[in-house]
Every structure is written in structure tokens, then in C-alpha cells.
Amino acid sequence: MALLLAATLAAVLATVLFFQHFLYLLFRQRTSPLRNLPGPPPPSFLIGNLEEMHDQENTNLIARWEAQYGSTFVYRGFVGACRLMTTDPVAIAHILGNAYDYPKPDFVRDSLAAMAAGHEGILTVEGDDHKRQRKILTPAFSASHIKSLTPIFWDKATQLRDILLSHADAHANGADATTTPTTPNNSNTRQGNPPRIDVLVWLARATLDVIGLAGFGYSFNALTDDTDELAHAFGVIFSSARKFRIVPIIQAWFPFLRRFNPINATMVEAKATMRRIGLALIDEKRRAIEEEEAAARARGLSEKSPCSPTLEEAMASRTAGRDILSVLIRSNMSSVPSQRMSVEEVLCQISTFLAAGHETIASSLTWCLYALARDPQVQARLREALRGVAASSRSSSHSHSSPYSPLYPSSPYSPTSPAPPIANDDAQDLTSLISQCTYLDWVVRESLRLYAPVTTTMRMCGRERDEVPLSVAGEGYVDKSGERRWSVPVRRGDLVAIPIQAVNRSERLWGADAGVFRPERWASPPQDARAIPGLYSNTLTFLNGNPLGGNRSCIGYKFALIEIKIFLYVLIKDIEFTIDPAMVIEKKVNVVTRPFVKSEPHLGNQMPLNISRASHSGSERGREGFAFSSPTISPVPRVPPAPEP
Ligand code: HEM
Which of 7, 98, 583, 599 is the most buried (most CB within 10 A)? Predict the structure, then answer.
């Protein structure tokens, strides 16, 4: 009886608290200064515009709102709560430049933590914890360090190319390509046509292999084997298609309801696997570093700090000591004890890198290949530029000492055999060469502009009150009283959406052809676009930050750019990608943007492209031996393609 009474009281109390919070939200909403901004009417009182927002990548929603309400407006969330959205470069610079005063809202951090990043990883922590972690992680992402990892990128790109070529050749020779041992069950081979390959799945495997080796010295071997338990565990946690569900929206405002989420046994098991392997990796790296240090001391280097160049040089000879996790652990060990990361924090970085460093790059490369398949002229021009790099490299270096050189059309190992040794100075030289290839650079900039893997991010005002400034040269906005304003009043708890993709594609900033894939635009980007406060290339693809106010920009952007360029070089040089013109590709966002075929939603995320061995034209053969790098490339006249999805 007493138990029943207690349960009833608890239920009544919970209901009262629930309604009290609900009333508070309604009151907050009625008094919000954001109510005075223009914006689209909410189709639903309960969930505002959230359902439309969920599918915005395919409907051009934000561009339509921007055209109708200007660059700064509000849309509605749960129970009509105003959320500020702006494509105004000055407003975005203010919010990103004061990142610690505009943290990620709790519900975003919770969903990132659940996705893979954990609650103590750099993607989810805020304030001083973030500053401390970022400082320790920074050396692992320096340009010179990432360059030392490039042999891994070359190996994996070449291994992928060989798998795809063996598939294309088997098909050309009349064999049933689906029987190729290394082919996952995702090809659709039609007689007479080049084989259709789901490039998304292959790129996901290759980039997982890269982050495994470069990130932690861990071999997933995903290109040749899909049985690795860590890869499986990660796949479960970072699960695929996301439907619009109302429960997480309500949980965002009533966090205690999250306790009632059903326990998913597969997920629990996957998290336990990630933790077990992560702890083993940390332990292994730490012991290796301690042994290295002991060996260095024994050689008379004991007075040097663990990060001194001499010791770095000594360690650099071992691939095992070069991965990001090793550098992070070394940097952690040499920090002041009070500033070090705990084991739990280091563990969270492993899953963060897996999530942030693999799906994003697979998505970028997939969309880039798609754009190139839809525009054969750009693809041909890129191939010609890349073959020019190869020719120029051959003419400048007569011998490549490694048993495997990425330059040569066919590597001497088969896709199923173990990867060759990674130590490869040639790989670093060639990386420097392709970094100077102007047309490759334009293609990468353009595809990262048009297909930013992360399309929107969310921030919350942490200041009691603030005025978000807008561009004085811009139009501002007209408030409900008819007055034009150039700043937006916000208060603690107000949500701000940063529409990365919409800014990257804004016609106001990029001109009327903003939605078209046109690498030549990078010869002279429009003046208005130069105001976008992006870390890279006047786009928001990698966001931006400010070391004083908080730097939440992508720490891995140099890693990403080099990996993307190397993969494009290796693949495009030898493989021609085409797409069935009747196929409609749409997007689905689950943290990163993935494609699916509109008529085949039951097949989930995929990007089916046709592949064949690229031929060498006479003019390309004639170019061999000539320097390729010309800072100005005259635009090729071509029919403007249709806007991209
Ligand atoms: C094309 C590839 C990539 C894109 C487009 C990308 C994009 C982004 C974006 C937009 C953010 C900010 C997220 C937010 O605050 O809401 C971010 C943060 C981050 N990225 Fe990347 N990323 C890429 C590759 C990588 C790689 C390769 C790594 C690591 C190996 C990485 C590691 C991180 C980390 C650790 C953060 C959190 C930084 C912080 O909060 O201080 N990313 N990335």
C-alpha cells in the first residue's frame, strides 16, 4: 500500500514538473526577442518547421526561405520555439568566433555522444575542457605530421583502384564481375555496359582502412575483409538511415525522458567492443612510447624532452609511432599533469576520429565522383591535369626506390594480398606535387563547397543577453514593427542554426549559378563569397573558430584535404566514372550527407556509378615529360550543367 502511494505521488510529481516545464517553454517563447524576426509559418504547433527541416537537403528549403525572408530569419522548433537561422557572414563570424559563449546545445552533444563521440571527446566537450583537449591534439594534426602519414593514403587509394580496375577488366573480358572475390555484394552488372559499382560502400571501406592505420595503427582491412569486430561495432553505433521521429525532439526539452529509452542489447555489446579494443590500443601505444623513451635515454638522449626533434626523428622511422593516437598520447604524457587527458577522454577521441575522420571523407569523395560522373568534360580535364602530374613526376625522378610506387598504372600486389610496406619517400614527394595541381584543387574546393558532408550545425546562446551583428553593407531584416535592423537580440538558451550547405550554395554570395558544379569559378571567386568566414576556401565546410573565443573548426581538415586529393589522383587518372543519366540521386543526412537512389529507397544509401578503364588520348601521351603545373588554366567552354541535387 505504502509502495503504491509512493509510486502515485512520484507519478503526480513527475506530471506536475512536466507541465511546469512545458508552461515555462511556452512563456519563454511568448517573451522571446526572436519573435520579432520574419520567418516561415510553422506547419505544426508542436514541432514547428522541424519536419520540413529534416528533409531540407532535397527540397532546397533554406534557399527558398532565404529568398523569401532574407539572410536572417527564424523558423520554429518544439512548441513553436524560435530558432535563429542566418547566412549572414558577419553574424556567423560572431557566433563561430565566440564558440565558448555559443556552445553546442545539450541535445546535439547527447546525440553526437550517442553516435560515437562519447561525452568526453573533443567533439562534445565545451569551455576549458575543450581548450585543454584541443591543445593536446593539435600536434597530431600538423601539416608536417599528416604528410608523414600519406604513404597510408597512397596505399589504400591504390588498393581500391586495383580492386575497381579488376572489376572493370573482368567485366570487359566477359567474366561475371560479381564473382570477383573482393567484390561486396553490391554490383549490378548489365551486359554490354560498364559494370555498375556502389562507390559509396567501397570508399567507406577504403577510408575506414585509412583512419584505422593513420589514426591508431589499427588494420581494419575493410577493403578485403568485412569481418573485423571493431568495424562491425562502429557500424552498429554509427547506424545508417535516420527517420524523422518526434520522441528525440521531446526528449531534447525533457531530458529525464531519455532514461526511458529501451536498452538495445546489440548497441550495448558494440559499445563494450569499442571500449575493449580502444583500451587495448591505448595501452599498446603507451607501452611502445615508454619503450622508445627508455631506448632513447639509453642512447644518451635522456636530457631531451619526449617531443624534441631528435627523439621524433628516432621514432619517425617506425610507422607504429606515427599514428594520431600515438602522437596524442605522447603529447598528453608531456603535458603538465593537471592538463592531461584522462584515459576516458583519450578513449572518446578514438571513436570521435573514427566517426569524424571516415564517414566525412567517404561522403566527400562519393559526391565528388558523382559530380565528375555527371560532368564528363570536367572529369576529362581533371584526368589530363593529373596525368600531367604523373608525367612531370616521372621526368623529375628516374628511380623510385620503393617496391611499390603509386605512380605506376598497376601496383605489383593484388587486392587480396597484404598491403605493401608503408615507408615511402616518393609518396611524400608526389603528395607535394599534387598539392600544386591547380585544377585538382579547384575540383576539390568546388565539390566540398557544393557537397559539404555536414550540412548544418547548431549553437546555443550562452550569454545572458547578446546582440548578434549583421553585415552593415547587407540588407539586415525588417522586424515585426516594420523597422529595418542590423543586429539580432538573443538571450541565454536561444538556439542558432548555422546552415553550412545553404551558405556554401547561397545565390546571394556565389551568384546565380551557385547550385552548379563549376570548378572554374575558383579562378576568381565572387567578392561577396570572400566574406564567408570559413576556415577553408571561403566555405563553411570545415566551419571556423578563434583561438581566443573558442576554436571549434575541423581539426582534421588538412588530413581530409590530402586524403581526398590522393584518392582522386589515383582513381581518376585510371578509371572513368559515368552515371546513368536517368538515375535520380537524393540525399539523406545522418550526421553526414549520404546519397540514395530515389527509385531504390529499399536499397538504402548507395551511389551506383559505372566504371571502366580510362583510355590515354594522343594529346595526353604527348604531354608526358612536360611540367603540368600552370597557375592559370583557361576555362573550357562547355554547356552549363543543371544544378546539382
Ligand atoms: C571532408 C572531411 C571533413 C569534413 C567536411 C569535416 C567537417 C567538420 C565540421 C563541420 C566540424 C564542426 C562540427 C561542429 O562543430 O558542429 C568538424 C569538427 C571536427 N572534425 Fe572534421 N571534417 C572532416 C574530416 C575530419 C577528419 C579527417 C578528422 C580527423 C581525423 C576530423 C576531426 C574532427 C574533429 C575532432 C572535430 C571537432 C573539433 C572541435 O570541436 O574542436 N574531421 N569537422
Answer: 98
